[in-house]
Specification:
By secondary structure, the protein is of the alpha/beta class. It contains 17 helices and ten strands. Helix content is 47%, strand content 16%. Helix 4 crosses helix 5 (57-69).
Amino acid sequence: MQTSPPKPPPSARVLQLATSSWMAAAVSAAAELGVADALAAGPRPVHEIAETVGAHAPTLYRLMRACADIGLFEEREGQVFALTEVGDALRSDSQTSMRNFARWVGLAADRNTWAGLADSVRTGNPAFEQVHGQDVWDYMRGRADVSKVFDDAMSEASRQLIAPVVGAFDFGGIGTLVDVAGGHGALLAAVLADNPDTRGLLYDQPDVVAGAEQTFKDRGVDDRVEIVAGDFFDSVPVGGDAYLLSNVIHDWDDEQSLKILTNCREALAEGGRVLLVEAVMPERAEPSPTVTLMDLNMLVLCGGKQRTRAEFAALFEKAGLRLERIVRAGLHSVVEAVRV
């Protein structure tokens, strides 16, 4: 008769939880070194991998041994390593690549910020400025190397939500879809590819949209897209039938979020709607550790938050909108609002 393994005692469980940051650091280091790329062609001995990635072979073995224990690699005889299915997602050219996301959480910009979580809980303020001496947005503007990793990480994360969102929500019937703060337009391009009668407008900061044209060309929808640069705190392009904001509102507190949503409401065409792609915070009876930890990440980085259905409804009401429905799409949901 098969029995479940015994639960670890409370002290051992706390130890597991408290040292989980060590596991994350190992994943980030493997991503930064490009170990998965070095294994893309097949299993290799560690000394060859070290030569490829520019690492000290005995020390790289220690890292890869630890990563094998958590399922990224498989260790074979003679210190030979192979990629696992999970480790394959650390390859730069994988369709499911999360390499840059793993790199991002290993950078001081993110990892050191979490050291200020207790202070954020004491004060209600983001830890980033206290730890780094400036807010996250100014920090990024002054460090092109860090912002590049961050932008690539967000693009990877966006790719993981695109298929569930496009599959779960019916974008048909939208004449013009305005993607507000849409980055390089990956989600907008996927929606347009799936809805040939819809036109798109991508709206983001000038330095962001400068790299967006190729995204639409790759999906064959560039003839149906307009790219506009601007600041959503000032205004958004007018006349859209729907305004799409993917993981935008969670970056901001209620006051700043209200400015963005109010601008979208004022720009809406008659009968238009606002669509937020967000991980909705469940009610207390439905545990969701990924979302609750994401909420803390928003707190320490920028003072934002993941919101519950009731919190979205209250925020919409202040902006002159009404929550219409929430459509679940994997971890994320499409939160739809209409003008009152």
